[in-house]
Amino acid sequence: MSAPSRSAPRASAATGVQRRSAICLASLAVGVLLVPSPAPAAEPIVPIDLLLCQQAIGKEALRFVKRVHKAWRICRDADTRGQGCDPARRDAAIADAAAKLARRSEPRCDAVTLESLGFPEACDDPDGAPFTVAELLACLDGSHRLRVGAAIAAAYPDGAGPLAGAALRCQRALGVGGEQLLARRLRARQSCRNDQLSGAVAPEVDCRADPPPGGPGTGHGKTDRRLATATEQLVKVATRRCAEVALTTLDFPGACADPDGAPFTLADLVACLRDGHGAHAEAMFAIEYPAGAP
Fold first, then answer.
1. How far apart (Å, rounded) are the C-alpha atoms in residues 245 and 218?
2. For 230-284, how does the pLDDT look when each residue is reduced to its tens digit (9 = 90+)?
3. What's the whole-model pTM score?
4. Helix H segments across the chain?
5. Helices 165-198 and 221-242 sit at what angle, rounded to 10 degrees?
6. What is the mean pLDDT of residues 52-60?
7. Helix (H, G, I), strand (E, B), or coil: what is residue 201?
8. Does residue 216 have a cis peptide bond before it, meaning omega lies within 30 degrees of 0?
9. Residue pair 23/265 in contact by the 8 Å Cβ criterion
């Protein structure tokens, strides 16, 4: 009869650690309870010209965010491969994104009184009324570039040298996953408010509320599910590509907080991106859709 393997206890212990890590990650992507949504309004709560302008602002701002993030992501991915970023190409892509933001927003908003949508609110307005489309575009450009830059800094620590193999695949996945998280969180808020302005979502729904489990939820089941799904997708990507990678290889925690100290775990990283990118999405949404609007 063969002797028992000495490695069995270690394997069991490792399995236990992996199981606890999986439970920890799963808790970050907890599902949303299905609750009945309030009855929608019967008709739009703003005139059609204001509605079309507001929808265009949200749609084009989201496209701008995705284009700027992609330009930076490509740049940082080149750095992590050891090839070096092409700053001229990056800056040209960002300039093109800004031009498209202006070109596609102005036709819908030129004849609209932006104050009727609650602007300038979070935007600077040094010249006073009227708040112009040019001033709105400058506000969106400046604020959203800043937020995208902060999101990139969290996902790509500055000290990470050239990477290869699993570490490189993990870093690239975090860049793409962070970009998708930011876009999904922002799109969920925008869709909720657009539908509310058009009368498809009840006025008492709070499209700005924090989703469960940390917050009360918006009161709109579809929006809460979208917000939860954004985090769930990040957890899947991070687990698939980064579970076997020592995050210190990528120079994490970097810009992420690490309240518990070493080791910086995958659950810590997901929480950092979830909370940070979520806060950036909410801040951008607050500028695009003023709280003082009807």
1. 36
2. 999 999 999 999 999 999 999 999 999 998 899 999 999 999 999 999 999 999 9
3. 0.86
4. 8-28, 48-80, 87-109, 133-155, 165-198, 221-242, 266-288
5. 170
6. 98
7. coil
8. no
9. no
